[in-house]
Amino acid sequence: MSARSVACAALVTVIVLGSASCGGERLDGADRSVPSPSVSEPSEPGAPATSPSGQPPTPDQPSPSVADVTPTERRNTTFNTSQVPRIKGWRSDFSDSFDRGPRRQDEWEAYGYGVQRPTGGAMGVYKTSNTTIKGGTLNLRYLYRDGGWTSAGVSSRPTFHAKGGRWEFRAKFPQGQGLGYAFLLWPYDDVGPTEVNIAEGTVNGPRVHGFYHYLASAGKYDKEQRTLRVVDLTQWHTFGVILEGRTVTYTFDGEPWATVQVERVTDTPLRIAFQTGALDPDGPGAQWLGEGVPGGVPGPTTPADATIKIDWVAHYVRR
Prior knowledge:
Layout: E1 13-17, E2 65-68, E3 90-96, E4 109-110, E5 122-123, E6 125-126, E7 131-134, E8 137-145, E9 148-151, E10 153-155, E11 165-172, E12 179-187, E13 195-202, E14 207-215, E15 221-229, E16 237-244, E17 247-252, E18 255-261, E19 270-279, H1 284-289, E20 305-318
Parallel strand pairs: 6-9
Antiparallel strand pairs: 1-2, 1-15, 3-20, 4-10, 5-19, 7-8, 8-9, 8-20, 10-19, 11-16, 11-20, 12-13, 12-19, 13-14, 14-15, 16-17, 17-18
């Protein structure tokens, strides 16, 4: 894979929200008594996407605290390259740089068998052909054709899942109003409530949300939110999370930007999933994230064809 140039000129800001500060956390925004994944991780290959019913989320609330993070031009730019990085103190036990193609369903399982719809007010259906490995990247395509939207979803279900450790991936986003995404970790056995949203939002940004969903000791479903402000998502950046002990640490371009303290980090093996959807302007996802596709169709601010690119993904364990 040829090296790619990395432009770093964005100032990032962290916004910290506790679980009581937001009425919804995912593209579907459901207040769940029974967990289900963001933009629907299917329970079996080809299964229709489902989500429990719930009230639409309230709009994003003002942050109780805002802290500046080091400008990206001073961040660890050597980490954000086209090569899967070596990280001091960590050993990679899984990685894929997508140098080969085409995509194989028994390696990266794409969503879209039958009529499988993304939840949370995302329009249209998943389509397996919208997820490809080509040109050295995993490609997640939004496409409007013949009067309807299709989107992409894929997971490492057939290949890899892990307890804890560190996940990292490198991504670049297109521009397009109302094009949503959720990149997350989901239990290998599809039994919640644990869900770790590493990065979630709309491709125009600037907000990138992280969530940790868990079951508290009192048996109550709970969640913690952190939000990163990235001015330019059209440039390559790496996003990640470290799960160990009682701490969930989110990373950006190789460096921590937010930490969540919980009673105990899950020891359930988790797989990684990348999910997309064009948001209905009247749906719950658009209400929470603050934007949908204007009029529900392509126009001056939303292209009919757009693609998120994933350069590599890796999991690490402590040495």
